[in-house]
Amino acid sequence: MKHEAFDVIVIGGGHAGCEAAHAAARMGTQVALITLDATKIGVMSCNPAIGGLGKGHLVREIDALDGLMGRAADRAGIQFRLLNRRKGPAVQGPRTQADRTLYRLAVQEILAERPDITVVAGEVADLLMEGDRVRGVVLADGSEIAAASVIVTTGTFLRGVIHIGDVSYPAGRMGEQPSNRLADRFSALNLPLGRLKTGTPPRLDGRTINWEGLKSQPGDPDPVFLSFLTAEVTAPQVSCGITHTNERTHEIITRNLGRSAMYGGRIEGVGPRYCPSIEDKVVRFADKTSHQVFLEPEGVDDPTVYPNGISTSLPADVQAEYVHSMRGLERSVILQPGYAIEYDYVDPRALSLDLGVKAIRGLFLAGQINGTTGYEEAAAQGLVAGLNAAQFVRGREAVHFSRTDSYIGVMIDDLTSRGAAEPYRMFTSRAEFRLALRADNADQRLTPLGRAIGCVGESRARQFETKLAALDAGRAHLAGESWTPRELAAAGFKISQDGGRRSSLDVLAFPDVRFADLVRLNPQHGETAGEIGEQLWRDALYAKYLDRQTRDVETLRREESTRIPADFLYEGVSGLSAELQQKLSRVRPATMAQAARIEGMTPAALLLLLSRLRAPRKLRDAG
Amino acid sequence: MDTIYALASAQGKSGVAVIRISGPRAHNAVRALAGDLPEVRRTSLRNLRDGDGGLIDSGLVVVFSEGASFTGEAAAELHVHGSRATIAAVLRALSMRPGLRPAEPGEFSRRAFENGRLDLTEVEGLADLIDAETEAQRRQALRVLSGALRERTENWRERMIQAMSLLEASIDFAEEDVPEDVLPEVRSLLLALRSDLHAELAGSAAAERIRDGFEVAIIGPPNIGKSTLLNRLAGRDAAITSEIAGTTRDVIEVRMDLGGLPVTILDTAGLRETGDVVEALGIERALQRARMADIRVVLSDGTRLPGVEIGPEDIVVRAKGDLHEGSGAAVSGLTGAGVTELLARLADTLSSRVANAGLAVQERHRLAIGVAVAALNSALARLNDEAEHPEIPAEDLRRAVYALDALVGRVDVEQVLDRIFSSFCIGK
Asked: Which H or E run contains A139?
C-alpha cells in the first residue's frame, strides 16, 4: 500500500512531535504525524507539570512563535505558580500543574483543528533513503510513506529498557514497545549514539493518602499563564501536598541498595544530576536526614498522585516499604511502581543549528532523542525542527535561533556545540543574557521573527501589535517627562538634591520603586494597564545592565556571524592540538561563537582559527 | 604557515650569534645549509654553506622537533660567529629558501602563544624577562613567565565561581533543598576576594616600579653640588658643573642598578627665586619632576627650600660635606664621602617599598583586576539590601569573572553547574 505524499513526516506524538507537526503545518506544509497509538498523542509520561525556571521561558518562547504547548498547558492547568516570585522578573518562571487527561485532550484538539496534519497510526520501521537524502519512511506493515523531510521525535523509545529492581525488559515507556529497528537504522547511518537513563517515582492512589496534617501548597491567587493568549483559568484548581523522607526511609533504601538496578550495576546509561533517584540522594548526601517530597495530583478526576522527589529503580516491594515509611503515606497504595528507563540518544553534535542531521539531508531530530530531558526542552526542539523541515521542503534558508535572542537559541547552541554528557535540562544560569531573555518579553523577542517566516497566525499578530504599541507609547511617555529633585522629594521619592532633572523612566529604575508609584508624579500613569506598566518597570530595573549586555550581544553576534565553512579542514592546521583538531572535525562548529564554546578550546586556538578563516589563500600556500 | 627566521641574539658584533628558525620548513632549511639534519636536541658542529655550496661559517646547530620547541613548531638554532658579515650571509642564505621569511617583531612568542605553549601573562613575562636589566626585574619577570599570575588568577576565579554557584543555586533551584540563605556565605567569599584583589592592586604599583624603574630626584638650592653628586653616582660627567649658580637648567637623567632595582637619578635646577625666564622654566620643571619622583634627596645648606614638601622617606643630607663641618649625614660629590651611605639608604628605602610587590605587572592586568573589583563592589552593594533581585549581583559576578578571564581563559557555565551539583542535593 502506498500513502499519498506529504511534505513533512513527524515520527512520534510526544511533546516534540506535536510541536514539530504543528509548526510545520503553520508554515504551510502538509504533515503526517505517525505514532503507535493516536490516543496517546500529547501524553505527559513523567511529572504532571509544565513550565518552571528556564522551562517556563522556553514555553513562552514556543508560544511567542504560536506553538501549542502554552495554550494546552493553560487549558489543563489545575494549579498555577510563578516560581521565584520573590526574586527578580528575569528569573521568574511560570509553571502549572497540569491535569494529565485535560492536557492530552487539549493537545489532540489543537492538532485536530489543522486540516493539514494527518495522524497515521503505525510503527515506523525504517527510513526511505536516496543517497544522502531522506525520502520518507517504511512502516512495520511494509507500507511506505513518501515525504521530502522527516522529523524523528522518538523520545526514550530507541532501544528503551525499563528497570525495576532486578527486573529488566525492553520498553519505550511503561506498557509500550521500544523502537529497535529505527535504532539499528541510525547505527547503520553511522550516527553517533550514546546511552542515557532517567527515572520515575511510584504513582500513588491519592484516596489512600492521609492528607491530614500534611503541609499543603496552593496555587498563586493571581495566576500567571504560560501563553500570552490566555486570559483566565478554565480548569478547577487544586493544591499539592508536601511530605518528607526520614531516617527510616533512608535506612530502608540503604539496606536494599544492592537490589537497585542502578546500584546493582545493571544500568550503564548516564542519568541527570539534577533529577537524581532517591537512591542517589541517600548515597551522595548521606548527612541529610530528610528530603522534601511534593505530592502532585495528576488530575481533577484522577486519583493518581505523583510523589515528586522519589524516582527510583528499586524493586517494587522495597518501593512499597519506603513509601509507607513516610508521613501521610503509611497506608497509601502504589498504582504503578517507579522505574528507570535506559535509552539510546543521538549525540546532538551530529546536528546543525536547524536540528537537521548534518550528514543526511531532510532528516531532523528533536526532543529526548537528542539527549535532553523535560517536556519543554523537547517541545522547543520540536518547534525548531518543524520550522526548519518546512523551510527545507520549500528550499528556503534555515531559521536559526541565537543565544542572544532566546533560551531556544541557548539550548540548541549548547546541544550542537557541546553535546549532552548527561540529559540536558534548561536553567536560567545557562543564558548569559538572562536579564534580557525574560519570560515576559518572549513575544517581543520572537513574535516578529515568527511573523517574518510565517509561523504566527493573524489573531496573535494583532494582539502582539496592540501590546507593542501600548509599550512604545508608555515608554515614550515616561521618557518624555522629567522632574527636579525637589519635585521628586515632594512626591516621596528618596533622592539626593544635587542631581539634575530625572525622567520618569530614570525614576522607575530607582531601587524599590514600582510602576504604581509613578502615579504620585503624574496621575495619568494610573491608566497604563497593569501588565504594560509592569513590563516597563522590568525593563527599567535592568536598564543599566541591559545597555552593557547589548554591547556583549554585539560582540557575540560578530562572532556568530563569522561562519566556518562546513568543509573546513581542521586537520593540518598546525598549532591546533591533535585533540582539538579531532573535536572540531567531529563537531564542525557553524560559527566562531560555537567554536569558542567547545570544551578545551583555548583563546589561542580561536585566534588561530580566526586567522585561517580570514586568510584562506595563506592556508593553501602552507600545503 | 610560513617558516620564519631571525637573529635571536643582540644586533651588532659578538663572539657568538644565534639565529633561530621556526616553522614547517625549518628542518629542510637546516638540511640545506648544514648538509644533513643533526639529531634532535643535540648540539652538533656543522659547516654551513649557501645555495652555491660556498662555505659561510662553521657553527653549532640545534634542531627541535614539533611540539618540543619554544614555539611548538619544528625549529632550529644556528650558533655562528657573531660578525655582522657572517650573520648577514646566513640570513641571506635562509632568505633564498622557498617558504622562509624574516620574522616580524615578537612573532616567535606569538607563535608560542598561538600554539598554547604560553598564555598571555606568560608572553608578557617573557618580554619583560628579555628586557630585564636588574636582578629584581629578572625575578619578577620570571615569576610571571612561570605562570604565577595565571595561578593566582585561577584561584580568584575559582572562588568567584564558588560564590556564583551559590547564588545561581538559589535562583535556579529555588524549589529544591538548597540551603535557605546562601547570602552570608556569598558575602564573606566576596569580601575576602575583594581584599585579595585590593592587595594585588596595591602591590601592582611596586611591581610597576620594578618593571619601569624608580625615580630619585636630587634637589636643593643652586650651586650646592647636585650635578657633582650626580656625576659621582654616574661615574662620568653626565651633567655640566661650574662655579656659576644655576648652571643646570634641564632635568638630567642617569639610570643605574641599585641593589637589583632599576633607578633613574634626576639632577634638577637649583631652587631659588629668579628673574631669569629660562632659569624659572627650569625650576618649574625641577619642582614638577621632584614632586612626581618616588624619593627626593635634598642637598641642604640649612635654608628652607621653596615649593617642595619633604616626605618622611625623603633623604635630607648636608651638602659639600668636604667643606663644611656639621651634624647629621653629609655627602660630598667631589670627594665621594658619604656617597656609599646615601646609596645604601636609598636601596633600603626602595627595597622595603617593593617587598609587597604583586604580580600584576602590566597596565592590562591592573585594568582587568580593577574591572573585577568594581563588579565585586557593585555585587556587594546589591547583596547588602535584602537581595530581592539576586540575578543582579549574579550578573555583576559574571562580569567579574569575565574580567579575570581576559587575563587567561574563559568562564564556562558548566563549571558553575558542576560546582552546584557537587555541593548540594538537587532534585526532588
From this structure: strand A133-139
